[in-house]
Design brief:
Elements lengths: L2 H12 L24 H11 L3 H6 L1 H19 L10 H8 L4 H18 L2 E2 L2 E2 L23 E2 L5 E3 L7 E6 L4 H8 L10 E3 L6 E3 L5 E3 L27 E6 L10 H17 L9 E3 H4 L13 H11 L10 E4 L10 E4 L5 E3 L10 E5 L7 E7 L3 E8 L10 E6 L5 E7 L8 E9 L2 E7 L8 E4 L1 E7 L3
Parallel strand pairs: 3-7, 5-9, 5-10, 6-9
Antiparallel strand pairs: 1-2, 4-8, 6-7, 11-22, 12-15, 13-14, 14-21, 15-20, 16-19, 16-22, 17-18, 17-20
Helix pairs in contact: 1-6, 2-4, 5-6, 6-7, 8-10
């Protein structure tokens, strides 16, 4: 068969990367090798090549040979001339394994034959661009006309029953873009996701409204799989409290297209702005992290640090200053060698008001009492620090509440009074205070007029030159 077409099919299926047969959707066998062979097609291809199935799965040369033999056999059944690239379209459509006619047309035109038109670049070989139109009905959807997500509603969803989406789950389709969104939109599949991102990020499919519950993860929340955070959620269905993004590709691939990462990050930024999802590694997580017994996506090559940085940059979040220590209200998120929080039983954990840092916050009823929330941090040497605090603002916050800096010898180094009814969901400067080497504290007092709730959420300490 034509080598150019063989490489274009491999490009559409796996990006010409060796993949290892991971499963994302029950009922769809995993894909193997550079050509993404799976299920009965894998067995037939191995038989036609006269090779063991295991060799076709693991050896790239055997995998490509077997796929070529399979495609050649299908072409012979149809009497296709090997040199007529356009005539190979029915064979390409069959290889895609897609039941939906519209998705099949998009796979043929926008994935395989588009790869032919642009040329395929792989290690050791480059194909020249070929201007060829497949002998296959054109899709009704014209790609690239609308820069937003393409709405393709899935019937596979139900109500969140009043719950909020507070997590974002990152998935990989274990297949091509067209096969992925069409499967998730099929009533026969019994699964769905809110979005699917194409292999290069050129398009996003929207399948389920964010306000509804998509069926994308078969796991309940378990804080032991997420840094010990929010253990009170244990046993809650993750579908109920999350938004899911599927990405065309495979958990076992060795790299991801920068366009896919960038488009997904932009999408994720919008999702976190529309829902109370903190933009951190405890709330934007992989499918395999929360369902490790039978899933591994998005895989070891997913660039988590870059992905989260791009999400935060897309949302305009300022990067943390160099050398800064952030002490969170949840000690499970703290590096306990650098900082931690202490509160008395009078303080209550809450996440009722959006705009908090990370996982939630502590609230303490204001009164004429000496009962501060204590944010401890360790300074390796004496020096000055810019001190900032974060809180979610609300009308029941105190109009005047006091923050105090205490040195390692329990002497006061500074204090300031703030109004927590405003300036929420941002870092607010408390002052530049001089601390000694060792364990120091930033205290939030509850001493104020009764009837309000002081909020201890997070404190950031950034080393600076002393005035």
């Amino acid at each position: 068969m034509p080598l150019e077409l063989l490489l274009a099919v491999g490009q559409a299926e796996t990006g010409l990367q060796m993949v290892r047969g991971d499963v994302e959707f029950d009922g769809r066998p995993g894909a193997w090798g550079l050509m993404g062979l799976r299920g009965a097609d894998l067995e037939d291809a191995a038989a036609l090549a006269g090779l063991p199935v295991a060799q076709v799965q693991e050896d790239p040369v055997a995998n490509v040979l077997a796929a070529a033999k399979l495609l050649e056999a299908w072409a012979d059944e149809l009497g296709i001339d090997g040199d007529d690239l356009a005539a190979w379209a029915p064979v390409v459509a069959r290889y895609g394994g897609i039941d939906d006619d519209q998705a099949t047309a998009e796979y043929v035109h926008y994935q395989v034959y588009d790869a032919l038109r642009h040329g395929v670049h792989t290690e050791g070989y480059v194909t020249e661009p070929l201007d060829v139109q497949p002998d296959w009905p054109a899709p009704s959807h014209v790609r690239g006309v609308d820069g937003g997500a393409v709405w393709t509603p899935s019937p596979n969803w139900n109500s969140r029953s009043g719950a909020a989406a507070e997590f974002l789950i990152v998935h990989t389709c274990e297949g091509s873009y067209s096969s992925c969104w069409s499967w998730l939109a099929s009533p026969a599949s019994g699964v769905s996701a809110h979005y699917v991102v194409s292999e290069t990020g050129s398009e996003v499919r929207a399948l389920v409204d964010e306000g509804n519950r998509a069926w994308h993860i078969a796991a309940d929340y378990d804080c032991a799989l997420n840094g010990g955070l929010d253990c009170w959620r244990n046993g809650t269905s993750m579908n109920t409290i999350s938004v899911g993004i599927e990405h065309a590709g495979h958990a076992s691939q060795s790299f991801w297209d920068p366009g896919l990462i960038a488009r997904s990050a932009q999408l994720a930024c919008g999702i976190t702005q529309r829902n109370p999802i903190p933009r951190d590694s405890h709330h934007i997580v992989g499918h395999g992290q929360l369902q490790p017994w039978n899933r591994s996506d998005p895989g070891a090559a997913w660039p988590w640090a870059d992905y989260l940085n791009q999400i935060q940059a897309a949302c305009g979040d300022a990067p943390a200053p160099a050398g800064a220590i952030v002490v969170d209200s949840n000690n499970g998120a703290n590096d306990l060698s650098r900082g931690y929080i202490e509160v008395s039983p009078s303080w209550t954990a809450s996440a009722n008001v959006s705009g908090y840092w990370n996982t939630g916050y502590w609230v303490g009823p204001t009164d004429a009492v000496s009962d501060a929330a204590r944010f401890w941090f360790h300074a390796d040497a004496a020096g000055c620090w810019d001190v900032d605090a974060w809180w979610p603002a609300a009308s029941d916050r105190p109009a005047a509440i006091t923050w105090i800096g205490w040195n390692e010898d329990a002497s006061e180094v500074g204090r300031t009074v703030v109004d927590q009814r405003g300036s929420g969901a941002q870092w607010n400067r408390l002052g530049t205070w001089s601390f000694g080497a060792g364990w120091n504290r930033v205290l939030l007092s509850r001493w104020s007029d009764p009837g309000a709730f002081a909020v201890a959420d997070a404190v950031r300490l950034t080393p600076v030159s002393c005035p």
